[in-house]
Amino acid sequence: MDKLEHIFELQKGFQDKLRVERGLNFTQEEWIQKQTLAMISELAELLEEVNFKWWKNPHELNQANIHEELSDILHFFISMCLEAGMTADDLYNVYVGKNKENHARQDGTSQKHGYETGLAK
Predict the structure, then answer these.
(1) How far is CA 37 from CA 7, 16, 71, 78, 89, in A?
(2) In this predicted model, what pLDDT tens digit does every residue of 78-114 receive, in sequence order?
(3) 103 close to 93: Cβ distance less than 8 angstroms
(4) Which of 81, 95, 88, 84 is nearest to 6 (CA)?
(5) Is residue 113 part of a domain?
(6) In terms of residue numbers, what domain contains 50?
């Protein structure tokens, strides 16, 4: 099985379990709002791990903690994808298309205005 598909499958199983065991019945809009807030919280935890507070003495970086926070962020991101009706294939296809557009923007070949660099080939 594809790793991204497996991640989606694992997250769906976890979400379904949470909904049943905790009696959660939010609308799609509420789920995405809550997951966005949870992701913001996880992003803040990641910032704490990488010494963003310049006014504090820095601590040694803990790669395991950084990896865990990134995984937490991914959990909420995949959860939002599922809630929005996206599959692993959908995410892959949208990502590949957007990546191509991002390159075109940086290369000055995008049809979108505002990204011209003078580097068009």
Answers:
(1) 21, 20, 16, 14, 25
(2) 999 999 999 999 999 999 999 999 999 988 888 888 8
(3) no
(4) 88
(5) no
(6) 3-107
